[in-house]
Design goal:
alpha/beta; Rossmann fold; ten-stranded mixed beta sheet; disordered C terminus
Length: 295
Amino acid sequence: MKNPFRRKPPMPSNRYVLGEEVIHPGKYVSIPRSAHLAILGESNSGKGSVIANIIKQEVIMGGEIWFIDLKAGMEAANYESVLDRKAYTLDEAEELLSAFNADVDSVAAEWRGKTRNLDDSQVRHRLLVIDEAADMIKSGPNKKKSDSCIEMVRSALSRSRALNCTMVVSTQNPRVSTSLPYRSLLLTTLALRLNSKSEAVMALDEDAVQRGARPWSISFNRPGDGYLWDTETNSVRFLHVPFVTDEEIHSLRRVGGDGDGRSGSGSPVPATPSPSEYRGLLRRPPLLRCEMRDE
């Protein structure tokens, strides 16, 4: 059976670096490249910068990048030079998710019984970004298509991690996120600035708040500050994700690719950034004091 993911040689790194610890500058916070991630935060809290930093690293590491942006493509269109697939409407999202799940089925059938987890030496890593998940929830004549998309997201989340796929889902509204049927499958959460303690509990859960997560205390002039919560390790990290300019985003290009957002089959794999190179990718503004309050 032909593998729908183009094979790539092994990569020396399997993590995304998100940013630096606020209290310990120079100490980087990272997550497994296989970890499905939820990003929650108010408008202008830094969600776009989180996505940009992850995409920049995925470009360097040679993976595929798929993007669903139902806000007329206002965010995703900036990355068109490095996207393998994109969806800007609900119809396009349904087609993309159907293709994503079909590829998951195909890869699973090929490797079933041979290994429990795939890596870049076996299949090319695939990153799927869904920007503003709440926009996928529709009523009226679009409800059936909306329900189909949400179910396909749930299905992909439940099966794709072991098949070298990662999904990153962002939303402004933690109240909406709690009602999504796939929310429990996003075990790693980054909460940027939120409005209240109750929203933080919805976004992260009570355990994270008890362990020190305070996203409602993040100052408006500190976009990119956030609390990372990993339910698998029960740990909270307070970090700053650096801002990425439009010029940096528009300058992204695939190394060895053909310029249309797809890498050539014979192109070399870019080297994974070293810790010193991450300092250039993840620039940190001057530290400001964050007010801590309960509500």
